[in-house]
Amino acid sequence: MTAHIPDGLLTPLPPQSRTGRSPTPDSPALPEPSSAERSAIRRSLTWQQRAALRVLARTPSRIRQRATGTLYVDTQTSAHIAIATWHALERKGLAHRDLAAHPASAIGQRLALTPLGVSVLNDISGLTFPPSRAQLWPPDPPSHFTCAPTRRR
User: Which parts of this chain are annotated as the region Disordered (predicted)?
Assistant: First the structure.
């Protein structure tokens, strides 16, 4: 038996974030944000959002669905990211997910930072994370891993 997902829980977000930048890396190349833009974004982040950016840059993470129908972020580590924190990063255009996959599928919805998220993280941490951190991992899984589970008879 598959769990029911309440309406509105998985609706795609608008293509533009608050900063006016497209949150997906598949969009045309955008100019590097100015230091003033990065500073404004950095000041708006909570400590939980900063920690989540670091975790997402280092580990392949996913949104999964429990049997009860609730969603959670699976980081495959002891680090915990609240689903509300994930939604905040997505709204700010700092992270994105694989909307083609279903969260109850075998691998869930893959998560990654956007190029803007990588830029802000580099600014926050003082480290240099490569642009490849904006790509979903693993790349292009087969459809039987990403489709919604079906009811067995």
Answer: 1-39, 133-153
Q: What are phi and psi of 41, to 5 degrees?
A: -65, -45
Please, which residues have CB within 8 angstroms of residue 48's CB and are 6 or more apart in sequence? 81, 82, 85
Q: What is the total count of domains within the chain?
A: 1
Beta-carbon contacts of residue 152 (< 8 Å; ≥ 6 apart): none
128 within a domain of the structure (yes/no): yes
Range of the domain at 131: 35-146
pTM exceeds 0.85 for this model: no
Q: Answer yes or no: is 126 within a domain.
A: yes
Residues in CB range of 142: below 8 A, 6 or more apart? none
**pLDDT digit string (tens) for 10-54?**
444 443 333 333 344 454 456 777 888 888 999 999 999 999 999
